[in-house]
Specification:
The chain is α/β, with parallel strands linked by helices. The chain is elongated, with a radius of gyration of 17 Å. The protein is 31% helix and 26% strand. It has a single domain, classed as Alpha-Beta Complex (Maf protein).
Amino acid sequence: MQNYQLVLASTSPYRQQLLEKLAIPFITTQPNCDETPLNNEEPEQLVTRLATNKALSCSLDKPSLVIGSDQVCVIDGKIVGKPHHREQAIEQLLNQSGRAITFYTGLALYNSLTRNTQVIVDTYTVHFRRLTHEVAARYVDKEQPFYCAGSFKCEGLGIALFERLEGDDPNTLIGLPLIKLVTLLENEGVSVL
């Protein structure tokens, strides 16, 4: 990593697990970022702004490459938030039944020494099977996806809810597009291999 420390601006255990796949030492820090969407902000604009703000919000004591990421789930042009409770999770799943929803994941890599920021947005589409209330309720009771946009965990039993998946990098669906991150790191002179 030359003279840089790699920093993940996230406390998400899912993003940490994903970044560990690259086998590069990193530290995590909690970003200081207001995640409230702006009026009339499109999903791609929102995740671009939030990923960038998360990366820039971290105060660092040495040269760092800071990774910021943010994700939203969109159905029929509307951002779907985290359900937070059982009834809302079941309702979200039933609303997605037999439909396609798209995840937009913003990824920013900030170089604290050069002050260069690279930002991309990666998309991933999930095509749901037809779900009954009983199936949705059983799933929610088993995995309790109350803090997951879209009310599922694709890395677990949530995979059984899908008809098919569409995108370049399955890691994007979990919240950190590793294929694109490798390219951003290479642009900063950091080779994963």
